Amino acid sequence: MRISRVDFKNVVELYTKAIPSVARIEKSKTDEVVLTESGQEILKLRKKLAEIPEVREELVSKIKEKILSGEYQIDVEKLAAKLKEWGEF
Description:
Layout: H1 5-28, H2 37-51, H3 57-69, H4 76-86
């Protein structure tokens, strides 16, 4: 293949124009994560779960007050049934 001076100039111009455009495309690329519908649902549920406190302080305070005042009564039959359900016995 023979490249004349004029052709060489055109080839150089083409390369110099092409290189910046490729560089621009690479700069504009960003990482992107696309979740499936079920993945989005799981993410929503995790966010809702994170909003729920691990310890319900209000309930714990009420029970503590009842214990201290002697009002809290343990239903032994119900407790035994729950323990049996969990397989502790």
